[in-house]
Each structure stands twice: as structure tokens, then as C-alpha cells.
Amino acid sequence: MLLIDKINDPADLRNLPVAELTELCAGLRELIIDACAENPGHIGASLGAVELAVALHYVFDTPNDKLIWDVGHQAYAHKILTGRREVFHTNRCYGGISGFPRRSESEYDSFGAGHSSVSVSAALGMAMAARMQGINQQTIAVIGDGAMTGGLAFEGLNNAGAQRENLLVVLNDNNIAIDENVGALHHYLMKLTLSARYNRAKKRIWDVLGQNFIRRGIQKFVSTTKLAVFKRSNLFDALGFRYFGPIDGHDVKQLVKALSALKKIEGPKLLHVITKKGKGYQPAEDNQTTWHAPGLFEKNTGKRIMVAGEPARYQDVFGETIIDLAHQNEKIVGITPAMPSGCSLNMMMEVMPHRAFDVGIAEGHAVTFAAGLAAQGLLPFCNIYSSFMQRAYDEVIHDVALQNLQVVFCLDRGGLVGEDGATHHGAYDLAYFRCIPNMVIAVPMNELELRNMMYTAQLPGGGPFVIRYPRGSGVGMDWRQPFEKIAVGTARKLRSGGTTALLSVGDIGNTAAKAIERLAAEGIAVAHYDMRFVKPIDEAVLHEIGKQYKQVVTLENGAVLGGLGSAVAEFFTDHGYKLPVTRLGIPDRFVEHGALEQLHAECGTDEAGIYCTLKAVTPS
User: CA-CA to 50 of 20 to 30 Å: which in 218, 258, 351, 508?
Assistant: First the structure.
């Protein structure tokens, strides 16, 4: 039996001698690689945090002690160690375990972590609640250096340092988030970790301490090394934390010693751990951005398994189109919060590095930064994943819409996204943007529509403009065509019908067209309108529909509450039309993870679901 097969929970782990932990880490790493080769996941960050997960569960009494992972990309070893080894092959699969920590999934998942930068604030709340209730527990937040660029992380550190609660923050510093880290904090951490004087002094003190790694020794280490090198307190000291490190995050024995000592020190403290993303698997170490989530691959060779002949991805249509537009319009600039390869702004960064900006994991800052650029006459395209845009809602209202600034928000990953699940589905953007004055909300049905909506959004005289498109590939059309302006707020009639009209918005309209074709083959005629804009909505078309048809079905790849369906129903009510409206979309609950086909079937928005709904409401 392999050593890893003996570990069913952290209690089993703690029965091992420290000398066997290195072997256990090797087994964990092998299991993660094996599983992710056949079932894609976030492999790079989790390979880099294997020793850290082992050491944390070895030293602390989880689940009584609370361990919060930020973000869950690095938590695969944690899942395997906490009773989910036998089901790890179902990771991110429909009906299987989540790719992120989930409180409902395990008592060891102290706090859900699908978005970054939340761990310190959550850990402070849990530590304070424990003290107020007289509960004896340790609280540990594990945060990556990429997540540390988020403003919420600094808010949490600032408050935690002032509150003086018993809290340990482990900074997992691998020098990269998904793409390469940017910003002043990145350079500051590099200074901490690469200073030759610092590391020479650290080594001398470690040699003096030997195996007697006790609190007095740690205090001597901090005072002599840190102050000797920097002549002043560092950033974390200034925020009220006692800083320790940096130490090698792949030396599990050293990690156990350090964490065991820190466990005895009261108050807020931060351990700086240096790791390598993709550790132990050469392809993942060599290309860390690609191997953040590489998809299917051959384990022995590292060759990624690609599907040949797929249409262009929407994100790549965006990436190429913004370059074309920027060549025509010198005012255009591009912005992304730490997702240049994820949204394809990296294309513009290569061609026009002085006009494309990665601002770190800081969505709120990205929006207000864009507002500042627009206020000075530039024309920013701010590309943010739909689910991440939720984090910048106030900035959109206050800094962009209220001032009616011409900022183009390109929302990638709109709608259901698949295996990342509830934390990443872009379900709510149509609803939360529709209620904001001055906003235009455009949703392309195909690649060419996306290209022309981007062109339309940057024309003179505009204001805030949202373009929302899904994850994945388009329909495969020839989209590299000359730009054409689209009249804002106009729909397209795609097909005439009998007494029923289907009103769709976005890429999901292509699925609806297939369902309508099936019905036509059975002699059932259904009209089809591509609404294109949720705001302003095409009122002339809605009047036409209200007068001509007896029943309406709306379809959107977004929350059924507040989006297109709600807009249509409100219009008909306001204008006295009595025809019933059946709304199809993402239901009023959190949809879990799985393949897109499975999730759309669950929501009734796949071809079969649309067909059944239309057939049920249409008189024979």
C-alpha cells in the first residue's frame, strides 16, 4: 500500500513521523497529476502547495482549527488529505466534488474560496468570533501573492493588525497568479526574497538555531535579520503583523518546524513561504501560465490534447478586434485585472504594450482607473470576467455611469461557464447592469456581432457600454470583415412564425434556432427575434410582438430574474399587452459545476429544453 492510501483524514496524517512526510508529498503530487491529466483542473497552483497543505494539517488540529484557502486553486492536496481521496477523480465533474473549497462539502472547508483576496477578512471574522464565544482555536489564512494584490486583502490586513486577534496569515509566494504578477507589491516581495544580504543573514541565524527552533530563536531571527537588512520595519510590520520568513515552501520538514513554533505565538503574524507553481511536473514548471489550467494532457509527455478545427473563441475575437480598432482610434486603451491571457488582452500587450494595462487582481481599481482615463479623453476597453465584475459594482455606478463616461466594459464568461461552477458562472450581469442609468447593454449572437458591437461602442458621443459574451468558441463564421455600425437598441427578426414568438439574446440564440428548426419540421411555426440589446430594448419590436403574437418565450444565458425576460414582461405590463411570457434562463438558485451541456440541460436552456417549452406553449 502506498503511503498516501493510508491517509483518510488529517488524524491519520498526524500519526506519521515527520521523516515520512516527504514521501507523502510525492504521492500527493503524483495523484494530482494523474487525476488532472484525465479530468482537467487547476493543476499548477495545487502542485505548488502540496508541502504547505501537508504541513498545515500536520501541525494544526483541523477541522477544530480553521484553515481558509485563498483562492481554492491551490487546495487540491487539502481536499485529498481531508477524506476526498477516493472521489477526487470526480473533481469539477457534474455531481462530483467542487474544484474549490465548499462549506457544504466538508467540515474541513472552513470558508468557500472561489474568488481571490477574501481569506484574511474571513479569517479575522472567524478568529474574533472564536474569542467572543470562548472557543480555543487557531485560525490560518493561506493567501497567494497574486491574491495579495486585491484591495480586500489589504483591508483585511489593516483591520487584523489593529484588532490584534490570534491569526496566522501564510503568504504563498510563487511569483505568479494566472499570468505574471504586476505592481509595486510584486516588486516589494521580490526585494524581500531576493536580497542577498537578507538571505546571508538568515542562513547564519538558522545555523545558530540548529534544531532548537523556539520562540526566542524566532524573535532573534526577526530582530537581527530584518532590521539589519532593511533598517526599518517592513510593510507587514507596519500593518501590525509580526513577519517571519521567507522560507522554502517545498521543504516540508522546515515548514512543520516553522508552523509549530508560530502556533505558540499570540497575535497577528505572517509567514512568508516561497513556492514554485507547477512544482514536481516539468511542463507545469516551464510554462506556468498555460499550466494554471491546461485542459487534457498526456501525463508522460506533457503534451496538451487539443481539439482540432474548433471555431475562434470569443475572447480571441475580442483580442484581435481591439487591436484593429486601436490602429484606427489612437484614444483606445485596454485594461484587465490580472487576466491578460484569460481574456486575450495579451495580444494587445504584445503589439501595443504602452496602451494595454494589467492592474492586478483589483476589479474595483480597474473600473475607476478606466474612469480616470476616460475623464481625460481616452477610450478604455475594460475587460473583466462577468462574475468578477460583481466585485466592482459600486465603481461602475459611481465612477462611470453617474458621470456618463465612455468606458466600454467587455464581460467575458457571461452565462454558465461549466466546471468552475457557482462561483464563476456569469449569471447576474444582465440583471445588475439593467437597473443602472446611462448604461447600454449589448449581447452578441456570434463573432461578427461581437466585432461590430465593439466598433459601435467606441464611436464618438457614447457613454458606458457593456458587451457581454460567453466562454468558449463561436459559431465558426467568417468574422474578419469590415466594421459596420449597429444601431443601438435595435433587434433583428430572424424568422417569422405563427402565434408564438421566441425572443433570445446572445449566443444561446443559436441553440434556440436549432430547436425552432425541429419544430418547423413538425409543422409548428415559431417566430424568432434576436434582441441584441437588453438596454435600451427595442420598443418598436416589442410593440410589434405584443400586437401580433399570442404567447412569448424569452431566452437568455443569465439569471431569469431581472434580465431580458423581466424587461419584456415589464414592457408588456406597462403598455397593457395581455399575452403570457414564459421565461427561460438560469433559475433562482446557484447552479453547480459540470459540463456546459449538462448544466444547460439542468436549466432547460439546451436544445431539448427549448424545444419542449416552445412545443408546450404553442397551440397545435
Answer: 218
The SS3 of residue 356 is strand
Q: Mean pLDDT of successive 10-residue segments in the chain (620 residues)?
A: 88 96 95 90 90 97 96 90 94 93 94 89 96 96 89 92 94 70 54 49 54 50 48 74 92 96 94 92 85 83 81 96 98 95 95 95 95 98 97 97 98 96 96 98 98 98 97 95 97 96 98 98 97 98 97 98 98 96 98 97 98 94
Has 449 been annotated as catalytic? no
Contact 112, 420 (CB under 8 A): no
Label residue 413 left, alpha or beta by phi (over 0 means left) and psi (-120 to 50 means alpha). Answer: left
Exposure string for 149-181, b = 16+ CB within 10 A, e = fewer: bbebbbebbebbbeeebbbbbbbbbbbbbbbeb
Catalytic residue among 363, 395, 556, 607: 363
Which H or E run includes 383?
Answer: strand 379-385
- pTM score, two decimals? 0.88
| Bridge partners, 468 (sequence order) | 411
Nearest to residue 142, comparing CAs of 116, 164, 165?
116
Q: At what angle do helices 596-603 and 607-617 cross, to 10 degrees?
A: 20
Strands, sheet with 533-535, edge to edge from the N-terminal-most edge strand = 356-358, 332-336, 379-385, 408-412, 465-468, 440-442, 533-535
As a whole number of angstroms, the distance between CA 559 and CA 409 comes to 19
Active-site option among 202, 226, 277, 451: 277
∠ at Cα 578 (577, 583), nearest 5°? 95
Active-site residue, 277 included:
yes
Residue 391 known to be catalytic? yes
Distance CA 430, CA 325 (A): 25
As given in the structure block, the three cell numbers for residue 475 are: 459559431
Distance, CA of 445 to CA of 531 (rounded, Å): 9
Q: Which residues of 465-483 are buried (b: 16+ CB within 10 A; e: fewer)?
A: bbbbbbbbbbeeeebeeeb
Q: What is the 3-state secondary structure (H, E, C) of 233-277?
A: CCHHHHCCCEEEEEEECCCHHHHHHHHHHHCCCCCEEEEEEECCC
Choose, from 226, 355, 391, 583, the residue flagged as catalytic: 391
